[in-house]
Amino acid sequence: RCEGSPVPRCPEIHSAVAMYVVERLAHSARLLFSWTMRSAAKDLCGRHARITSRSYGKEERGQPWTPNHGLYLKNSEGKYISPFHDIPLCAVIDKGLFNMVVEVPRWTNAKMEIATKVPLNPIKQDMKNGKMRYVANIFPYKGYIWNYGALPQTWEDPCHKDPHTGCAGDNDPIDVCDIGSRVCSCGDVIQVKVLGALALIDEGEMDYKIIAINLEDPEAQMFNDIDDVRKYKPGYLEATVNWFKLYKVPDGKPENQFGFNGEFKDRNFAIGVIKCTHRFWQSLISKKTDGGGICCKNVSIHDSPFCCSHEEAESIVQLAPKYVKSSSIPDDVNKWHFFTHER
What we know:
By secondary structure, the protein is α+β, with helices and mostly antiparallel strands. Helices cover 24% and strands 20% of the residues. It has six helices and 15 strands. The chain has a five-stranded mixed barrel.
């Protein structure tokens, strides 16, 4: 488990035990077997990742692309949970593996995110000035250029100033960009290998972007640090900086800024940032820190004052409107925006 983090108190014991056993086998295989046997270790790790993804279900409520829509997550027993608080941050054995909640699939535009101020924190589409938010297409990109999401049980504390940039946190779970080849679905829970971090300063707020790769990706074993992304996916990091720099410009906002002059930090730095945001979350969930309007209701952190029963969680979801077939996405979402390289 991550240093300084509590052992997750989850009701789905059988799933956790199965995950633990597979992890130990994979860990032992990596340590004991020769290079010719590494593929077996990789298969075990991949099997563990598939077990993790199958441990969670999802249920849509309301009508997609409208304010009343929400995607609720369930555990392996079909009980409703909070993707913010009830999914463990990291694997039991391997500190380099973290759970990621996918909010936005690659190539899509709807700005979906864990709704931190809504009970059970469903994934909802963000709104701005009364309108549903879609990210603009900046030529040559279409929507998000990675699977985009968040690490559960993390929080960028708005009362904490980052020592490197002097900027306060953005009040959200820490963001992740999965650079794997598979296009995920909204609400998927995948395991990722952390590779590095980009220090985005978004409208004056600290908004770290963790760069990671899906453990199930066929090439995942080739990636262990940020330099591997430069080596095996040339141009991807440069595109990532450009995307985050410009994505709000079509809305009339200024270009975003970066800490470290836009240079990517390595895996060790990224894991340090993750551990720090996990400690902030621990203070939040135990009510040692005032989270303001953030809803900390959960079903698995039993020593948290915000812990509730599964029955209460179900009653919360039942209050949400039933699923209705999606409406159409506005035509202007497909518009392309062009900028000169001199910007």
